[in-house]
Amino acid sequence: MGKEYDLMNELGRGNWIDAIAGEAVVLGSFLKDLELVAQGTELSEMVREIRYDSDDFYLVEAKAKQLEAEIAKLKLTEARSVYIDEVCLGNEAMGKVDDEWEFDFILAEARYEIRMMLPTYREKIKLNDLTKAIAESGIMRILTDNEAKTLTNEVIRKVFSDQEYITTSYYDGDRLVRRTIDHQHDPADKSGRGHLDIFYFDDFETATKAWKTVREVVTSGRK
């Protein structure tokens, strides 16, 4: 996934047009849509070559709006999740392990998501991991413009095959911004649980800004 992530960084996010170009390249790379990648790259080059005060800048805006509409259509018709990037705590060479936090940046159901998952834990102290908490605070500042802002929440408890699932949804007004799911693994072993935090974003620029924060926090501990 390194190649696509590098492409996103190279294109930058200086304004809404840069954001559209970057989004086209990232999504096109993962969906293996070479035409979408080419259009995103072309738009990025047009931004560099045509000055904002040029009489021809309308061509850049027209291209950006056309590409924006194509991306919106793709989001409505693309059923599967698109995994854009991932990072995890612990030893990078060992990869993911069940009892360490994992972080994913994806597109699902027309919204961007950052997911923080702890596949297995037995003590609640694991939920308060410092690195995870710092990354979470960074996300909430970006999502709400105020980390301490009070959100309304809804808690639903369900049992499937004797396994308890507790889902808490957080809203900023009518907008769903976060959902947590905590669940048992095995009814015979009530101490073994799993946890998932999902943060929702409506636009690519805000989502990538939040993901950059998460990535920097998680990888800084490896230096």
Any chance you could write out the topology, listing elements then pairs?
Blueprint (H helix, E strand, L loop, with lengths): L1 H10 L4 H16 L2 H16 L7 H21 L4 E7 L13 E7 L2 E11 L8 H15 L7 E9 L2 E10 L2 E12 L2 E13 L2 H17 L3
Helix pairs in contact: 1-2, 2-3, 2-4, 3-4, 5-6
Provide a brief overview of the structure.
By secondary structure, this protein is α+β, with helices and mostly antiparallel strands. It has helices at residues 2-11, 16-31, 34-49, 57-77, 130-144, 204-220, and strands at residues 82-88, 102-108, 111-121, 152-160, 163-172, 175-186, 189-201.
Architecture overview:
By secondary structure, this protein is of the alpha+beta class. The chain folds into 2 domains: 7-77; 82-221, no CATH class. The protein is 43% helix and 31% strand. The chain has helices at residues 2-11, 16-31, 34-49, 57-77, 130-144, 204-220; strands spanning 82-88, 102-108, 111-121, 152-160, 163-172, 175-186, 189-201. The protein has a 7-stranded antiparallel sheet. A hairpin with a 2-residue loop joins strand 5 (163-172) and strand 6 (175-186). The two termini are 21 Å apart.
Which sequence of SSEs, written as H and E, runs from N to C?
HHHHEEEHEEEEH
Task: Figure out the total of helices.
Answer: 6
Give the number of domains: 2
Strand residues, percent: 25-35%
Q: In which order are the strands of the major sheet placed?
A: 1-2-3-7-6-5-4
Spans of at least 5 consecutive residues with low confidence: 1-13
Helical percentage: 40-55%
State the major sheet.
7 strands, antiparallel
Can you tell me the overall shape? elongated
Overall residue-averaged pLDDT value: 82
Based on secondary structure, the structural category is alpha+beta
**What value does the Rg take, in angstroms?**
20 Å
